[in-house]
Amino acid sequence: MQTKFITKVFPEGQGRLASQLMSSVDCVILPLCQTSHVGKQTLPSAIAHLDQLLDGAISLAIKNKEFAGKICETLLIHQNSTWKSKGIQAQRILMVGLGEHAQLSEKTSENKLLTEYAKAARAALRVIITNQSQSVLWLLDQEIGTKKENIYSQCIRQTISLAEEACYRFGARFTQFKTKPVENPVNLKSITFATTTKLEKSLKEIVRIGVAVAQGIGLTKDLGNLPPNICNPTYLAKTAQRVGKEQALKVQVLERKDMEQLGMGAFLSVTQGSESPPKFIIMHHQGGTTKEAPIVIVGKGITFDTGGISLKPGEGMDEMKYDMCGAASVLGVMQAVAQMGLKKNVIGVIPTCENMPSGKATRPGDIVVTMSGQTVEILNTDAEGRLILCDALTYVERFKPKAVIDIATLTGACIIALGHVHSGLFSKNDQLIDDLLEAGKISLDTVWHMPLDDAYQEQLKSNFADMANIGGRPAGSVTAACYLSRFTHAYPWAHLDIAGTAWKSGAAKGATGRPVSLLTEYLLKAK
Ligand code: BES
Ligand code: MN
Ligand code: ZN
């Protein structure tokens, strides 16, 4: 990450400090609510000081109706000779509208408020990136900070993630893939959050967590976007080992022979047609006591999904490089929790291989024995995610987990059901469901609770084995989850289908980094 996130004290009513701060940045961002201040033509007290310093430039813009504080509205005020004569170096002030809902009331839900804030922050970032500001002072506690601590903290964390998103250029991180330098590079060197003294300590901690999460998201996006000839199972294993070294995580990588010994017949059937060796990655973050049961996250790591013998159609098949986004999110989350020093035990598990057709590949009709001992008739080799995950879900029983969450780009059917807005959440554990729904709303990385009734299990019947690996077209994402549920009886479990949310197609093709925000938020709050 290039951008530095800094915190500075900005005591109310001290104009001198304000000017000092302003001398070190080239843009000041000033988010304002439509209803509370702009509409009433009164400014929050610290902003009023700033206004005085600027000879009333802010209040004049409001009075002249150049700025109403509508959601995403932006107005740039440029430096003039009077500011300059007072020693204020900032080239510009960017007023940003937070709209009506930004004012926290009992009626406004936290999710609504944060969603609106994120929209406004995106608008502000677009402007400062266009005008190539390098150092920015972000003033927000006057409108939001003093009201609800949780909201305040989330707004700052959102700002950090959104700034990273706005600055993300794959080509700037990996220069080997395009022979010409990246178009419109960004050079946002720092964002300084200003706060009152009493909030300073918590603000530092919030920024530290926000940066860890944003960097985790960055890692997840990079891994997703890398081409499948580079980002293969071996690359993921090496990345896990590198992250482990950097962040003091214990990392273990199992090879094919280890998986054979463990009896992972379902996983091994998927890798059979590939020349690239499979890996089974385990990452331990020991932030709690040794006695404490861990939370385990398991990510699908198919580094390329051709469908195997049940070959996929050619159009858009390149996007199946993203079929390891579950694995990438596990790596991102593990990096983030280690970096922030989360005081809990978390284990990340990644089964990873390619799904390729070949003379050695698994055929439709083959029957395999899973690590659990249950047998599976493989009716479609393109339903491979559940085959690698089921053995991983059996493997993690040994950790006696408090909870297990798997994350997978599992079904096209989930995209049909939920589009690209929510990830699918499947679970029978009420606590996990509530916690993940809540974490989604707060992190703006939302999930939708899908059914998992036993009635759907019928569709997995096989005439020749304990179960089939597909359940037909109806409710395809539900039967996939039903299949996984048969391997999770030893612990509380939830499954996230991120097929619609892990990446974007079309002109803006690229990984989103979801659901790293959701999972880190869940882990931070987990009891
Ligand atoms: N990785 C795919 C799911 C997928 C497809 C995610 C498109 C995102 C976009 C998965 O391995 C798969 O192929 N699933 C099949 C299952 C079917 C054969 C039962 C699917 O969804 O078509
Ligand atoms: Mn597939
Ligand atoms: Zn797949």
Structure commentary:
By secondary structure, the chain is an alpha/beta fold. It is 39% helix and 19% strand. It has 19 helices and 20 strands. It has helices at 15-23, 34-38, 45-53, 57-63, 81-85, 110-130, 141-145, 149-167, 170-173, 200-225, 233-247, 256-262, 265-271, 325-340, 385-395, 412-418, 430-443, 476-485, 516-525; strands at 4-9, 27-32, 74-78, 92-97, 135-139, 190-195, 250-254, 279-286, 295-299, 301-305, 345-355, 367-369, 375-377, 403-408, 423-427, 447-449, 467-468, 493-497, 503-504, 510-511. The strands form 4 sheets. Strands 7, 8, 9, 10, 11, 14, 15, 16 and 18 form a 9-stranded mixed sheet that branches. Strands 1-6-5-2-4-3 form a 6-stranded mixed sheet. The radius of gyration is 25 Å and the shape is elongated. The two termini are 31 Å apart. The site of manganese (II) ion has 4 residues, from loops.
Task: Summarize it.
By secondary structure, this protein is α/β, with parallel strands linked by helices.
Distance between the termini: 31 Å
- Helical stretch count? 19
Q: Portion of residues in helices?
A: 25-40%
User: Main beta sheet, described?
Assistant: 9 strands, mixed
Strand content: 15-25%
Residue-averaged pLDDT: 93
Strand-pairing-aware structural class: alpha/beta
Bound molecules: ligand BES, manganese (II) ion, zinc ion
Radius of gyration, in Å, reads 25 Å
Oligomer: single chain
**Large-scale geometry:** elongated
The number of strands is 20
Regions with pLDDT < 50 over 5+ consecutive residues?
A: none
For this entry, give a set of tags:
single chain, 527 residues, alpha/beta, 9-stranded mixed beta sheet, 6-stranded mixed beta sheet, elongated, binds ligand BES, binds manganese (II) ion
